[in-house]
Amino acid sequence: MGSGPQKYLLSDEESRRVFETEIVRDELEYLQGSGHVNDGLQPLAVILVGQTGAGKTRTAPALKEALSNINRTPAHFIADTYKTYHPEYANIIKEKPELASPATGPDARKWLEMACQYAIQHRIDCLVESACRHPDDFCSLAQAFHDGGYRVNVAVLAVPEALSLLGILIRYYKNLPEAQSRNLPLRLTPKKVHDDTYTGLLTAAAFVDESDAVDEVIVVRRNNLVAYHNGREGNGGERTWKRPTGTEHALDIERVRPLTEDELATAHADLLTLEDHKDDKGVAASVMDIKDYLSALQAKGSSMTSFPQLTPLDAAAFVAEGTSEMHASRGPGKLSIEEEIAREEPEA
C-alpha cells in the first residue's frame, strides 16, 4: 500500500462493491424505467465541460430542464459527488481535509465511468458535467456513449481565466451551491486544479473536432451566450460536420474576447465582495492576480478587430432530436468562426 493519497485507493473489487451496493441503489436504480430499451428512441448524452469555476452549475439546470421538457429523464453525473461514497471519506475530511480530493478522486472517476456504463446498458439519457482535469476521461466517456448508440451533444464553456479564478473564490466566500455539490463540504479549489482543468479543456475541444464521437457542439460563455455551434448531417454511414470544425478555435477566441458590460460589472462587484476577505490567507494576492488578468484581457481583446456574434443559448433546440440551426447571422464587422479559420489558413 502506498503513502499519502495513494494509500486510500480502493482495490478493483472493493470499488465495484461500493458501486453496485451503494451508488446504484442511491443514484441509479430509480432511473431504470426511464431508459429507451423498448420505445425505439435514441438515447441522448449531453456533456457539459468547463474548467473549475467556469459556471457549469449555472448552465446545467437549463440543459436538464430542456431534457425534461421533451420527456427525457436524464441521469445527472458529476464525478466529484461520488467522492463521498469512499469508505474513508468521513475520516479524511475530519483528520486530513487537504487530502479529501486527491485521496478519493481516483475512485470517484472510476465510479463515474461505471455509472455511465450502467446508463448505457439501460439506455438512460444522461447529463454529464466534467471539469476536464483528466481530459482523457471526457474523451473516453464521449466515445463510449457514441459506441453505445447514443446521440452525443457537447457544450463547451468558454470562460476567460480571470473569471473562473474569480468564480472559485466567490462561490467559496458567498457559500454558493456550486461550492457544495450535493453533500460535499464547502471547498476552495486549489489554483493548480483550476490550471489543470483550464488546459485540459483544450484537449477536450480538439477531441470534439477530430473524433467521430460527437454529434452536436456549442461553445458558450459563462452568461449562456453561444459563440459557436456545429452539428453533423447525413443519415447512416459517414456523418459529416455541417461547417468547418472550429470548437478549439472558438474556445481560444472566447478566452481573449473583452468582457461584455454585464460581465465586467459582475466581475467588479465580485472583486468588491472579496475586499471583505482580503486578510484571509492568499486572498489579497489572488485578487491582485485576477485584476492583472482582467486588465490584460481587456487590452489584448481590444486589439482584435472582430469576434463572432453572440446569441442566447436555446437549450431546447440544443437537446432536441436532430440538428437545429442555432448559428445566428453576424452583425456588422463580425466574422463567423469559419471565416476566422479561413483567414488564418494560408492559401494552397
TrEMBL record:
Gene Ontology MF terms in the entry: ATP binding; kinase activity
Lineage of producing organism: Eukaryota, Fungi, Dikarya, Ascomycota, Pezizomycotina
Name assigned to this protein: Putative zeta toxin family protein
Keyword Nucleotide-binding: yes
Keywords, in A-Z order: ATP-binding, Nucleotide-binding
Region feature Disordered, mapped onto this chain: 323-348
Keyword Ion transport on entry: no
The organism of origin for this protein: Phaeoacremonium minimum (strain UCR-PA7) (Esca disease fungus)
Domain of life, source organism: Eukaryota
UniProt cross-references to SUPFAM superfamilies, sorted A to Z: P-loop containing nucleoside triphosphate hydrolases
Family annotation (Gene3D superfamilies): P-loop containing nucleotide triphosphate hydrolases
Pfam family, one: Zeta_toxin
Domain Zeta toxin: 38-232
